[in-house]
Task: structure prediction
Amino acid sequence: MAVIPYKTETGSKKEQVARMFDNIARNYDFLNHFLSLGIDILWRKKAVKMLRPEQPKLILDIATGTGDFAIETLALNPDKVIGVDISAGMLEIGKQKIQKKGMIDKIEMQLGDSEKLLFEDNTFDALTVAFGVRNYENLEKGLMDMYRVLKPNGTVVILEFSQPEVFPMKQLYQFYFKFILPLIGKVVSKDNSAYTYLPESVQAFPYGKQFAGILEDIGYRNVTITPLTFGISSIYMAKK
Result:
């Protein structure tokens, strides 16, 4: 059964996720950096560094949100980065951020569905996703469409939450994720469900070797897993 943000309301997971991110868009960046103590910034930098040897010229950042990962990939000196997201609210904040930084000629933000990407087959040198794949309504469908738009020998880099498995980090993480994070998220974002959905969606996500196996079943090759910060999140890297 799909984990959804608003359990008492109707609408598909996709519709609910879009609405949830619209609701929290204004506070999203602050909460992201505050709740992760800024470690999420270091995680993105690490993921981009891993992509450096590939020297991608055209990058698609899926579930781009407010564009943090897309902005980070400019360190690779690509010709163009396209960011796609289903939340118009998040994209609006992202567009303002990109305009302020003077990056409008390098990054293009588009409203779009990660499971039905509006691009030709074999278009992009690299695909990046940060904390987005666990929000897909149909994980396999989304990963297959990503595979379709990636050029042969292109690279995908996915940064996603996983779960620490070693004492005492496992216990601390679960306590923080279940009790502290939803409370702070609720107070700041004024959305009762958004930061309850986060731990639930992480709990339900097939992280580690299980997720790597899904990528391999779809056709991705050379799949690697790099755990970060005691396994709180992981970078998955693969080739088409």
Summary: The chain has a mean pLDDT of 94. The domain at 13-239 is CATH 3.40.50.150 (Rossmann fold). The two ends are 30 Å apart (CA to CA). The beta strands are 58-62, 80-85, 107-111, 124-130, 150-161, 221-228, 233-239.
